[in-house]
Amino acid sequence: MKLALVQMDVQIGEPEKNYQKAQHFLKEAMAQNPDMIIFPEMWNTGYALEQADEVADIDGKRTRELFSEFAKQHHVTIVGGSVLYKDSQSGDVTNTMLVFDEKGNEVIRYDKLHLFRLMDEHLYLKAGNAFGLFDYKGTTVGTMICYDLRFPFLFRKLVGSGAKLLINTAQWPSARVDHWRTLVISRAIENQSYMIAVNRCGTSRDTAFPGNSMVVDPWGEVLLEGDSNEQIYFVDIDLAKVDAIRKRIPVFDDQRFDLY
């Protein structure tokens, strides 16, 4: 399975520029015929939360049109990172991931479960209330967004629901890149799953973002660790390795649910 990780800079509060860039990266990614293209968190607007009324994607219309049509035309699965999304009826604003299969069908909408107080998400956004799970050709994929990475019980729930491939899309800052790296590797090892972590790069309002997108296999081996440049990373993974590792060290069979 070939993955394309889109590590992009994001222009805060400028959706027009960001959608144009996303379209460019989609076309560039197809030069290597990936099975799945993955974007970072909030790539359409950045953290322009106070401008949500002006810049959020209303009902996800623009994002759906871009990704659904491209996925169908090129027979590729697109994990749409996340976008600033506004519901036209309720007025709710969410940090929302949309995923489209190779036929252009929307397979999940996932709203970020854990809102990050340091970025005032709790003041502007509504938290999600459902897990992000979808099927990719017989393999269950679990999704989460940025801060969700810090909550290990979420990952156990996803794996308990059958997930073998875990995807986190983020705007994780350089100031905490050591946490990022440690958590991504840990989540892969403790859940015996592939961990795909796609982060943005560049700067926004004096905050630097390191890129440092990662792919870690279920044994904890780092298959990819990106630099700070804006680019697409391509990685091949073998999903059969998940079952092999879980058979070798059967942690899920040995869990003591009677105690914890």
Describe this protein's structure.
This protein has one domain: Nitrilase/N-carbamoyl-D-aminoacid amidohydrolase. Helix content is about 30%, strand content about 30%. The chain contains eight helices and 16 strands. The strands form three sheets. Strands 1, 2, 3, 4, 5, 6, 7 and 16 form an eight-stranded mixed sheet that branches. A six-stranded mixed sheet has the order 8-9-10-11-14-15, covered by helices on one side. Strands 12-13 form a two-stranded antiparallel ribbon. The protein is globular, with a radius of gyration of 17 Å. About 45% of the residues are buried. The mean pLDDT is about 100.
Break the fold down into its secondary structure elements and pairings.
Blueprint: E1 2-7, H1 15-29, E2 36-38, H2 52-55, E3 57-58, H3 61-74, E4 77-79, E5 83-86, E6 93-100, E7 106-111, H4 121-124, E8 132-136, E9 139-145, H5 152-160, E10 163-170, H6 177-191, E11 194-199, E12 201-204, E13 207-210, E14 214-216, E15 222-225, E16 231-236, H7 240-248, H8 251-254
Parallel strand pairs: 1-2, 2-4, 3-5, 9-10, 10-11
Antiparallel strand pairs: 1-16, 4-6, 5-6, 6-7, 8-9, 11-14, 12-13, 14-15
List keywords for this structure.
alpha/beta, 8-stranded mixed sheet, 16 strands, globular, 6-stranded mixed sheet, 8 helices, 260 residues, Nitrilase/N-carbamoyl-D-aminoacid amidohydrolase
